[in-house]
């Protein structure tokens, strides 16, 4: 910093040239930034014009910071790294965040599945207003300075973050552990349960000792469930879970109630299974009756 007065600040560059931060620029700076503009302090400035009527270059501190943010956004796009920020706005198409001093946009198609489930309602206010000021992890997917366009994806960042958490969780899990999780999705073959950043599968055959046609017969997305870890596969990054293992085995009850040589009465529930075994008995009789 070369010289300051209430209306302008002069900056001397290494080449000996002088730049001026105009009054309208000072009006846009926050209080802490202005207090730091003391004679002798080093600042990063962006050259807006190479000359002015006063003979100085016109420079901008806010534009320099914005330029630095664009460079950081481009770096995040190249390295595909995760950026943490907060939600500070929305429109009908998605969420708005701050990337430093830049305005970034997350299209609705790039919002995480968990957040999408919360976005209920007909209007943007109904869908997004409750999410304001929430922390969010994103990845930069497009940087276009010419159009002042910065597009981000929470879905991509969440996927990578979950993979890292899953690797950590898998290294900590032991077969036989009992955990509490939340159902995050249902498929024809089972239910996926979030165990705290990583998901495991309860296969249809591990849901109950009773016959289950579809997971939705027992569970809903969002349900909290107790599960037992029955399989951990670090190489394939898979976690096998069971609800059935936490229920009493019905065969144990049968062994308590029934003894060998005991005479009991039952009810036929499925006659199709008996048809092949009765063929020897029904066959000859049918042939005899036809003659």
Polypeptide structure, described:
- The chain is elongated.
- About 20% of the residues are buried.
- A hairpin with a 2-residue loop joins strand 6 (about 80-90) and strand 7 (about 95-100).
- It has a 5-stranded mixed β-sheet with strand order 1-2-3-5-4. A 5-stranded antiparallel β-sheet has the order 8-7-6-9-10. A 5-stranded mixed beta barrel has the order 11-12-13-15-14.
- The protein has 3 domains: about 5-65, no CATH class; about 80-155, Beta Barrel (OB fold (Dihydrolipoamide Acetyltransferase, E2P)), CATH 2.40.50.140; about 175-245, Nucleic acid-binding proteins (OB fold (Dihydrolipoamide Acetyltransferase, E2P)).
- Residues about 275-290 have low confidence and may be disordered.
- The chain has 8 helices and 15 strands.
- With about 290 residues, it is α+β, with helices and mostly antiparallel strands.
- Distance between the ends: 118 Å
Protein structure class: alpha+beta
Secondary-structure element order, N to C: EEEHHEEHEEEHHEEHEEEEEHH
- Count the E strands: 15
The main sheet orders its strands as 1-2-3-5-4
- Shape descriptor reads elongated
Number of helices in the DSSP assignment: 8
Largest sheet: 5 strands, mixed
Helix content: 25-40%
Uncertain ranges: 277-291
The first-level CATH class of the largest domain is given as Mainly Beta
């Amino acid at each position: 910093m070369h010289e300051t007065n209430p209306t302008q600040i002069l900056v001397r560059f290494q080449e000996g040239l002088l730049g001026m931060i105009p009054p309208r620029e000072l009006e846009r700076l926050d209080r802490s930034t202005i207090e730091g503009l003391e004679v002798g302090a080093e600042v990063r400035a962006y050259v807006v014009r190479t000359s002015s009527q006063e003979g100085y270059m016109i420079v901008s501190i806010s534009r320099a910071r914005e330029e630095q943010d664009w460079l950081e956004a481009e770096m995040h796009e190249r390295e595909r790294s995760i950026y943490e920020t907060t939600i500070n706005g929305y429109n009908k198409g998605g969420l708005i965040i701050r990337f430093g001093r830049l305005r970034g946009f997350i299209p609705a198609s790039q919002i995480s599945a968990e957040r999408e489930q919360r976005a209920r309602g007909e209007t943007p206010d109904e869908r997004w207003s409750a999410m304001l000021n929430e922390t969010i992890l994103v990845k930069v997917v497009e940087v276009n300075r010419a159009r002042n366009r910065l597009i981000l994806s929470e879905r991509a960042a969440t996927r990578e973050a979950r993979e890292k958490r899953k690797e950590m969780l898998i290294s900590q899990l032991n077969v036989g552990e009992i955990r509490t999780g939340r159902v995050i999705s249902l498929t024809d073959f089972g239910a996926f349960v979030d165990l705290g950043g990583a998901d495991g599968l309860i296969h249809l055959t591990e849901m109950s000792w009773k016959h289950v046609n579809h997971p939705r017969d027992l569970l809903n997305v969002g349900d909290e469930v107790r599960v037992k870890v029955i399989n951990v596969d670090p190489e394939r990054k898979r976690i096998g879970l069971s609800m059935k293992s936490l229920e009493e085995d019905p065969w144990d009850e049968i062994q308590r109630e029934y003894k060998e040589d005991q005479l009991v009465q039952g009810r036929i529930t499925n006659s199709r299974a008996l048809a092949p075994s009765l063929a020897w008995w029904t066959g000859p009789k049918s042939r005899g009756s036809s003659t």
